[in-house]
Amino acid sequence: MKKVFFFLVMMGLTVALNAQEELSWKQTLPRHDIQLGFGDPAIIFAASGKVDFTLPFWLNYRYTPPTTFSADDWFYNDVRRKTVAIPTINFEYRYRFAKWFWFGGAVSYTALFDRREDRITHELLSKTTDHYISIMPSVRFSWLNTKYITLYSGLSAGLIMGFSEAYEQVGSTLADHPYHYVTLDFAGQLTAVGIQGGKNWYGFAEVGFGVQGFVKAGFGYKFMKKEKKANNID
Fold first, then answer.
1. By C-alpha distance, which of 111, 129, 112, 136 is closest to 186?
2. DSSP for residue 208
3. Which pLDDT score, from 0 to 100, does residue 180 have?
4. What 3 state SS string does 77-139 have?
5. Residue 120 has pLDDT above 90, yes or no
6. Is residue 175 very low, low, confident or very high in pLDDT (cuts 50, 70, 90)?
7. What is the pLDDT at residue 85?
8. Which residues pair with 221 in a beta bridge?
9. CB atoms < 10 A from the CB of 98, how many?
10. Long-range CB contacts (< 8 A, 24+ apart) of 53-56?
11. d(Cα 179, Cα 165) in Å, to the nearest integer?
């Protein structure tokens, strides 16, 4: 009888400890995570064909010579091209549903400014401005969760919209009115490894593949869910 009683007591203590452990992460780890990050726009502009990858992504300056040199091409324009790309700006929010599982969304923006001019006369031949906005739901799997350090991987998938404005040369002068066009395509981001360091305010860095960049870094803020206080009745 004593053995049975002792066994039941131990089972009760085990269940209580497990329940306490299950709730402990909700009491000690933050539930909300907001962050602002910056990454390279390599993937977005790889498809555009406007970026020379022998130069930094954010500043491309190159000379495009004539493709032929026959007698009929004496007046062919030697073109100098300058392309400036800004880093991707990424705003993200996630909510922790479990100790290791987060769900949220991300909005990213980047832009490309392309200009072509005559190498000798510096006459403007064309200029294009491309704006890209991506909207993606995202999941995160945090496999190290401490008070100050979080290690994680993640996946985001959604759509990217491109808004372009182009001035092309008509005859010998640049057109007065630009061409406008909109594109819509799939967007994704795979975060292979990410690290956050800090208690509430933190810095982070990620390595991955997608529209937000191969490398992404920035800062963020994480905080606890506010618990409702019970009303005291006198």
1. 136
2. E
3. 81
4. CCEEEEEEECCEEEEEEEEECCCCEEEEEEEEEEEEEEEEEECCCCCEEEEEEEEEEEEEEEE
5. no
6. low
7. 85
8. 34, 201
9. 11
10. none
11. 6
Tokens representing 144? 């190290």
Q: How many CA atoms lie within 13 A of 10 on its CB side?
A: 6
Please state the pTM of the whole predicted model: 0.72
pLDDT at 27: 74
Rounded Cα distance between 140 and 97, Å, is 10
Contacts within 8 Å (CB) and 24+ apart, 220-226 = 220/33, 220/34, 220/35, 220/36, 220/37, 220/92, 220/196, 221/33, 221/34, 221/35, 222/30, 222/32, 222/33, 222/34, 222/196, 223/30, 223/31, 223/32, 224/30, 224/31, 224/32, 225/26, 225/31, 225/32
**Within a 13 Å sphere around the CA of 98, how many CA atoms are in the beta-carbon half?**
7
The CA distance from 59 to 25, in Å, is 45
Residue that has been written with the tokens 């305010």 in this structure: 201
Tens of pLDDT, residues 12-55: 445 444 544 455 777 778 899 999 999 998 888 776 666 554 44
- The pLDDT-based confidence of 82 (bands split at 50, 70, 90) is confident
168 vs 15, 50, 124, 154, 203, CA distance in Å?
73, 16, 9, 42, 43
pLDDT higher than 80, residue 193: yes
pLDDT of residue 58: 40
Task: Return all residues near 158 (Cβ < 8 A) that are at least 6 apart.
Answer: 106, 134, 135, 136, 137, 186, 187, 188
Radius of gyration of the chain (CA): 27
